[in-house]
Amino acid sequence: MAIFLFDLHGHPIAFRRTSEDKFIFDKHGHWIGWFPWGDNDAADKHGKYLGSVVGNRLLKRQAQPYRGYPGYPGYPGYAGYPGYPGYAGYAGHQAGYSDVDIERLRL
């Protein structure tokens, strides 16, 4: 079962295959990043900070400290089409966070 991640407006922008999956995919099933540090912070395929999972949202922390280069996890394969997640509703203001730039989700 796919775990969908949404922006602040409730639109689906990414997903994980399971809650423990270390990889993150765009809503079309293309690999865009992973969770190298074992927490909710995601890095893109180049090792740069992509965003943080806050509840069911993928948001960009406005003041993210550098955590070092996480290496390369290996290719996770194709996740497949996750289906339609619906709409999550508006999240309101999240102090210290903003939406991830949509261009970063198309690497």
Summarize the structure in words.
- The structure is a single chain.
- With 107 residues, this protein is mainly β.
- It has one domain (3-70, 89-105).
- 0% of the residues lie in helices and 33% in strands.
- It is built from no helices and eight strands.
- It has strands at residues 3-6, 12-16, 23-26, 31-34, 41-44, 49-54, 57-61, 97-99.
- The protein has an eight-stranded antiparallel beta sheet, with no helix packed on it.
- It is globular and about 35 Å long.
- The protein starts with a strand and ends in an 8-residue tail after the last strand.
- The model has no long low-confidence stretch (mean pLDDT 90).
Provide keyphrases for this structure.
107 residues, mainly beta, 8 strands
Topology:
Layout: E1 3-6, E2 12-16, E3 23-26, E4 31-34, E5 41-44, E6 49-54, E7 57-61, E8 97-99
Antiparallel strand pairs: 1-2, 2-3, 3-4, 4-5, 5-6, 6-7, 7-8
In short, what is this structure?
The chain is mainly beta and about 110 residues long. The protein has strands at about 5, 10-15, 25, 30-35, 40-45, 50-55, 55-60, 95-100.
Low-confidence stretches: none
* Number of structural domains: 1
Identify the overall geometry: globular
Q: Which structural class best describes the helix and strand composition?
A: mainly beta
Number of strands: 8
What sequence of helices (H) and strands (E) makes up the elements? EEEEEEEE
Question: Total number of helical segments?
Answer: 0
